[in-house]
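Case study.
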Amino acid sequence: MKLIIFEDAKYDNLYPLTYMRPSFELRCGATSLCEKITHAVGADSSAAFVRDWLGEVYAQKAEIPVNDPAELEGDVVFVNGRLLVDGTCDLKSIGPDEALKVGDTLVAANVTADTLAAAKEESRDAELPGADVSLEPLEAVLTALGPKLAVKEAEATMIDFPWLLIRHNSAMIESDFERLYTPAVNAEMPALSCMLGSEHIYIAPTARIHPMVVLDATEGPIIIEEDVIIFPHTRVEGPGYIGPGCRLMGGKIREACSFGPVCRVGGEVECVIMQGYSNKYHDGFLGHTYICEWVNIGGATTNSDLKNDYTTVSVYFKGELTDTGEQFLGSMIGDHTKTSIGALLNTGTVVGMMSNLVFSGQLMPKEVPSFCWMLNGRPTKGMGLKAMLRTARAAMGRRKKEMSPAEEKLIRHLHGMLKEDLRKAIKKAFKR
Amino acid sequence: MADLNDVTARVKKVTSEVVGVPVEQITAESRFVQDLHAESIQSIELVAGFEAEFDIEMDEDDALEVKNVGDAIGFIAKYVDAK
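After joint prediction, the assembly is written out as follows.
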């Protein structure tokens, strides 16, 4: 049996986090949505379908076939990549030719080879009014499958909005710890370091813990992966996940943080997810925030994650100020974005990719477009795309990574796709 | 053809807003850095301000090479003509 994990048309609900990756590669807990789905299904093999303009970049990173129609055969379990496997929905309980839905959203379907073959044949010349063309041919096959499957209404947690990753992060660290790790302190703990609740701590053998480090797992587990270095005067509270090659530079790593590979983190952070390869080296507070890859947070950059009147936080979602229902919510920051020293981010700020936020003495706006330099509180195009690409290559080179031609092509595609948003924002700001 | 008087007045208006120098002190010969004391960040703001004012999209590299107000007027007039 094969697993096919797919992006549905709501990938754009998760912008800016999904500009450069499929929705199922987003992190929640110690692992991605994809890893959790793959583990839950326990298939013999896997394949993925993503929007077409992301396919080339994702195919280079994924270890499974991507957007290959030839994979649409045999006995297949289709799973929507926005599903958070949190125990609400049992993927193994889906019977043959049965589908689970939440409202109109397909969560998962267990499709036999004959049914899939018939749907594939029917879908060859199908017209899909209103379908997202970038997700063909998968969408054509799923549409043809519809009437052939017995549909059951499911209880399932779908990541409909980016802030849900932040909401569920703490619980997901705990469940990933239970599922994937055996508590063990495999690295040397210096005499002047301290562990509380060591029965809930995993430290990989190649991790290095300096003196004057406190690991407090009394409120939740702590996972410290290979090649992590934790420098003196760092306190880590569980639940917490410190990914491979991370360095903690001193400070308060409070509960519910997940750092993907090769991040640098210091200062005070609480319930922060970092996708990987990003830096928040210096002092300054970030809370209830999602940071994509290759982001650099300047010293003393701080965000608010709680309003002074304790009401729920609103964010700009598809251009409209929308109540998230969350009492705590900081920022969502796209790939390759930088903040200057002292930048101040308001509660519920959404920052696009490849932007540069320069401190101006006031709060940044709650919505910053992609490819934007915020200067003196106003959006600009900065030095332009060529300079932004140059900076991105330099940042990646510092971590021994190279921007592939496919990645550059994707960034150029996104620049074209998003430049009208920036143009409108500039015009609005300068016409005031 | 762009109305050069109009372009001149609007270039001076945007320049004044960004660098904080009164319009009447800005001439075609005024150099952005040496005379108007524009910092590098303000050069970027000037480009954004001109684009918004004239509803044009300029090449960033070329735009940032423009050194004085008179050259900016000529540079922008070409984009206005091309609209």
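Observations recorded in class. Residues 163-430 of chain A form a domain with the UDP N-Acetylglucosamine Acyltransferase; domain 1 fold (CATH 2.160.10.10). The interface with chain B takes residues 358, 373, 375-376, 378-387, 423, 426-427, 429-431 of chain A (CB under 8 Å). We will return to this complex in the next lecture.
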